[in-house]
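Researcher: We plan to redesign the surface later, but first we want a full-length starting point. Tokens attached.
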């Protein structure tokens, strides 16, 4: 991608990968310019979402961003708190995050996933007014949907390694399974 192509992607939308009744709906902060330019979530090469998703056992192999639609076969999906693309998350105002939280709530009420997994503690805190939230399961629910906050998989998040992130994702994976169930390949 050229710098011009990336800049042209500013404010574009990346379509959700969703269906009703998902096991886990992952929710990014907002699409980056690479994601908007390609139309694929978590598309920036340094983003650790796809490797961590595999390391945690959610997928039988590491998917590429262009294979994002395969997530549906595993009962997984992707959306964002804020739909518009930007170069950095700090370009999103608190007001946009709060409005994004309202829109996300409506989406979750419609789709009814088992879990909503927000990847980014600051985005979750701002969107839902939960200033003291920490990574992990939350007390708040949206209808019957439980919420889990995960670390931001951006390569800029130096507080978490791919391994420690995968451990947190794996905790969610275990919680998302019915008792005695495993998540088989292709489901």
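Model: Full-length starting sequence:
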């Amino acid at each position: 991608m050229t710098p011009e192509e990336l800049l042209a992607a500013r404010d574009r939308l990346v379509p959700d990968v969703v269906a009703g009744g998902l096991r886990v709906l992952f929710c990014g902060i907002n699409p980056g310019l690479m994601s908007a330019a390609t139309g694929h979530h978590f598309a920036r090469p340094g983003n650790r979402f796809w490797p961590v998703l595999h390391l945690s056992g959610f997928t039988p192999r590491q998917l590429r961003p262009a294979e994002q639609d395969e997530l549906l076969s595993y009962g997984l999906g992707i959306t964002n708190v804020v739909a518009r693309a930007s170069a950095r998350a700090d370009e999103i105002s608190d007001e946009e995050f709060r409005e994004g939280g309202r829109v996300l709530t409506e989406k979750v009420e419609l789709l009814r996933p088992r879990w909503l997994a927000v990847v980014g503690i600051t985005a979750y805190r701002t969107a839902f007014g939960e200033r003291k939230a920490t990574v992990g399961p939350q007390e708040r629910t949206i209808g019957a949907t439980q919420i889990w906050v995960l670390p931001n998989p951006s390569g800029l998040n130096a507080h978490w390694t791919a391994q420690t992130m995968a451990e947190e994702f794996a905790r969610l994976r275990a919680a998302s399974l019915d008792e005695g169930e495993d998540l088989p390949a292709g489901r």
